[in-house]
Design brief:
- This protein is α+β, with helices and mostly antiparallel strands and about 375 residues long.
- The chain is about 20% helix and about 35% strand.
Length: about 375
């Protein structure tokens, strides 16, 4: 199938406008290119779930690389992820060396989270079906067919006694190790949460002159513009203020630094007496003080697009992220190897062997998997 037709079918599938014949054509094509994947399912329903994990990738973000790589390489990122293709792999994927880490597989994370309602009750989002979940203070909470949670303000947000509800009520979404989730807030702002993260937010921003949420872990925000009510994201160490923009915040408590990466618009970040402003393509790194650098912003949001993308990161930093997503433990058999740097582009929804194989082939490192533990040593 020609690449133009493939991307057209993918766009229709992602938007929900695909016909039954087009869906079958896309599935048949996907089967033909993914038949090397031992995990690829056979029955039609499971195929659709399997593909959805891979096709919910932002093909526009990946598309920027098409002039730099062959179409097959770009497609392997955007579509053929089930094959575990990597643009830098040169060796036979069935070689004895690659089979070392395939003896024991560690499965990737998935869309799962817990929603904590204002009354303290909890809803497991990995099990919830599409449709209405709850209604609170004039806000309908539902799960869309694509999986995300949507908060919708009802025509009349009133309490049970008929009076206007002036009490601010909060919900919290928490993702576990090996989980991620997307939520659409009542103002239309979209938030993607990475593994082991949480977002606390009010049910409605309607009566406020600001929109404030609290983040622990990592989140990507596409903020709905509202000049009368700036959007604010608070973390343990900083406060980010925006009107409408796209940005990523990496604020895991165990990390030495908090990173804010701007993709579009403008943000103001404050920590104590220190303040910085970012323009698109810049990243603020907060340790004791702010450091601002020009970066490849797409690296920071690769996780949201279904990818691992590292450019010269240390092995220790990479494996911290990998362990969080695969719910794995990492043991280093050589302390010095932690500082070795890697450039990696891989499918986040593939089994862990895809990533480990590529790193073995591009660096002086070996991996051994036992149960849910990954042992790392020098070659």
């Amino acid at each position: 199938m020609k690449k133009k037709k493939v991307y057209s079918l993918i766009d229709k599938y992602k938007s929900g406008n695909v016909t039954e014949d087009e869906r079958k054509e896309l599935f048949d094509w996907y089967r033909s290119v993914a038949n090397q994947d031992a995990e690829f399912p056979e029955d039609e329903h499971t195929v659709e779930q399997f593909m959805r994990n891979r096709l919910m990738v932002d093909t526009q973000a990946v598309g920027k690389t098409r002039n730099k790589r062959t179409w097959l390489a770009a497609a392997s990122v955007a579509v053929i992820l089930g094959m575990g293709l990597l643009y830098f792999i040169k060796k036979d994927p069935h070689s004895a060396q690659n089979q070392l880490v395939r003896k024991t597989e560690i499965q990737p994370g998935r869309n799962q989270a817990v929603l904590i309602l204002a009354d303290g009750s909890e809803v497991s989002l990995n099990d919830a079906i599409a449709g209405n979940i709850s209604s609170q203070s004039g806000i309908k909470i539902s799960r869309a067919a694509a999986g995300q949670i949507v908060y919708t303000v009802l025509p009349q947000a009133i309490t049970s006694d008929g009076q206007a509800d002036t009490i601010t009520r909060y919900n919290t979404i928490k993702t576990p190790v090996g989980g991620q989730f997307k939520v659409i807030l009542s103002d239309g702002t979209q938030v993607w949460l990475n593994a082991l993260s949480s977002l606390k937010f009010p049910l409605s921003f309607a009566t406020k002159n600001e929109r404030r949420v609290s983040l622990v872990g990592e989140g990507y925000f596409e903020v709905k513009k509202n000049e009368q009510a700036p959007f604010k994201v608070s973390t343990a160490k900083q406060l980010i203020e925006v009107l409408g923009t796209h940005f990523n915040v990496d604020a895991y408590p165990e990390n030495a630094a908090t990173k804010t990466t701007l993709l579009e618009g403008a943000v103001r970040i404050a920590s104590g007496d220190h303040t910085v402003r970012l323009r698109p393509g810049q990243e603020a790194i907060l340790k004791e003080n702010f450091e601002v650098a020009d970066v490849q912003a797409e690296n920071a949001v690769a996780w949201k697009n279904g990818l691992f993308r590292f450019d010269g990161e240390s092995l220790e930093a990479i494996m911290t992220i990998v362990a969080r997503w695969y719910n794995a433990k990492v043991v280093y058999e050589s302390e010095g190897i932690k500082r070795e740097s890697f450039g990696v582009l891989s499918d986040r929804f593939a089994n862990i062997s895809t990533l480990l194989n590529s790193m073995e082939q591009t660096g002086g490192v070996k991996f051994r998997v036992q149960g849910s533990t990954v042992y790392v040593s020098s070659k």
